[in-house]
Amino acid sequence: MEQLKTTSKRPNTDRLPSIYSLQFEELQDWLMEQNEPKFRAGQIFDWLYKKRVTDFEEMSNLSKELREKLSNSFILTNLKIVTRQESSDGTVKFLFELHDGYSIETVVMRHDYGNSVCVTTQVGCRLGCTFCASTLGGLKRNLEAGEIVAQVLESQRAMDEVEERVSSVVVMGIGEPFDNYDELVPFLKTINHEKGLNIGARHITVSTSGVVPKIYKFADEKLQINFAISLHAPTTEIRSKLMPVNRAWPLPKLMDSIRYYIETTGRRVTFEYGLFGGVNDQEEHAEQLADLIKGVKCHVNLIPVNYVLERDYVRTPKNQIFAFEKVLKKRNVNVTIRREQGHDIDAACGQLRAKERKEETR
């Protein structure tokens, strides 16, 4: 499967592009093509990301002619709320409907240090991880950069109601971000831009299941964004059973790409390790994991898995989770156990979509 390439399932191009897909410099270029001054880009970004307007007509310091040009050239992506679930711990999960009827999930998580938004990059996923609800029904299409940006904007509008701010973003929702790389990077640059949502690079995290060629490419971007790997296994044999992507790019090749990333950027990586009862959660697996990442500048995040009706995996008992953590600490591995959030709602990624939109996930 080495020949696996980034999906060609592109966003719908039969409609006007989302203005949220434009990076600041691209908007400046467009304005110059329209014989408009470049400084208007700053005004437009202010309306889009600071005032968060929903209609070009609201941009009152722009000429009527420019507002018409914007309306004739772009859309302001609108996400319709199908379902909103709120957990007792403050976690909010949205099921949004897109313009073509497909649906995606976005989650707002409240922490002591601020509010974090988990965004989706694809409608469905083609990588087929055997524990994940997101891959049920396969991949329908990629999201435009603007549709990913819109998830953060809609989350911020929800936070506006309680006078709070989105302070961080994690790209860990439905889909494999690196399978939609060309839309992912503009999204990251827009939300990070000082005139955009101005979310600091160190407050943005991208997670991949291991699309090795794109890890090298991402390293060369030299973004100061946090980088996470969905590892979930200490050996190639176990990982291939859990994650078919490992058959395309086996664990040794993945580790080589991670070392390249660290050498190129100087940044550490986070290994996300979901614990599945009787599969990868024994102390011997912890020893194997410590051997695998020895000498790698990293952090391990242990994840007690959420139960997914359509999957057969069971949660690791708490005492076993602590025993696994103890082995890693003894081996001088920087490790934490992820705090559970949204346990009383459809917490697992893709779970709400699977329940509410069965026609999409069959």
Q: What labels describe this entry?
A:
about 350 residues, alpha/beta, DNA polymerase, domain 1, TIM Barrel, 2 domains, ten-stranded mixed sheet, two-stranded antiparallel ribbon, 13 helices, 12 strands, about 35% helix
What is the molecular shape? globular
Structural class: alpha/beta
Strand content: 15-25%
| Estimated radius of gyration | 21 Å
- Assign the CATH class of the largest domain: Alpha Beta
The CATH architecture of the largest domain: Alpha-Beta Barrel
Q: Please summarize the sheet with the most strands.
A: 10 strands, mixed
List segments where confidence is low: pLDDT < 50 over at least 5 consecutive residues. Answer: none
Helix content: 25-40%
N-to-C order of helices and strands: HHHEEEEEEHEHEHEHHHEHEHEHH
Assembly state: single chain
Q: pLDDT average, as an integer?
A: 91
Number of strands: 12
Query: What is the number of independent domains?
Result: 2
Per CATH, the superfamily of the largest domain is: Aldolase class I
Number of helices: 13
Strand order of the largest sheet: 1-2-3-4-7-8-9-10-11-12
CATH topology descriptor of the largest domain = TIM Barrel
Q: How far apart are the termini?
A: 25 Å
